[in-house]
Write a structure and sequence with these properties.
By secondary structure, the chain is an all-alpha fold. It is 74% helix and 0% strand. It has 11 helices and no strands. It holds the Pfam family TetR_N.
Length: 210
Amino acid sequence: MRKNSKAAIIDAAIYLFNTKGFNGTSVRDIAAKADVNAANISYYFQNKNGLLENCFTVFFEHYLEELEKGYALLECGAEACLKAMVDHVLRYQCENIQLTRFILREMTIDSQVVREIMSTYHVKERFMFKKVLEAGMETGEFKKLSVQFTILQLKALLSMPFLNTHYVTEVLHVQPHEKYFADKYGQEISKWIRGTLCAEQQPEKMLINI
């Protein structure tokens, strides 16, 4: 039996949930993959649903931690802050590709767990994005756009590669978990922020002597 059986169980569950689906994975499957006794799963998580909730909690707590690192830079300007938030979240998702893929897929299902996530973690996420966008609009850094629709567009950019990893590989010939992808895709989102959100810099008016 592995020394850290709890970590082994979580790793095995994430792998199997991704490859076989949540409903297609049994407690015995997880125990066999983790090389632990099935009783260990009951001890740590009660059952498979408890393990699922743990995966959600682990993902979103760390996700929000990364988001907050960028949000803390709001005093440096809205554009710099938003780009930092994107960079932190994108790299977290790339470094935890299996967990990210599974969680984002599960978020498309209407379930009690998902509704609870929407009422807690997603509320915090929307609050931070909203504050940054509104701050940028107030200072003139950002154009006057719909905050709600801008958040939707930003969320789509951050989630699409992890919901459609095979499509990304087919188009870009690179895996979403590779550092090159995180660097390049982060640059592309930065261009989107600059081109879509940022107000055009007004050239200084030239004085004309008549």
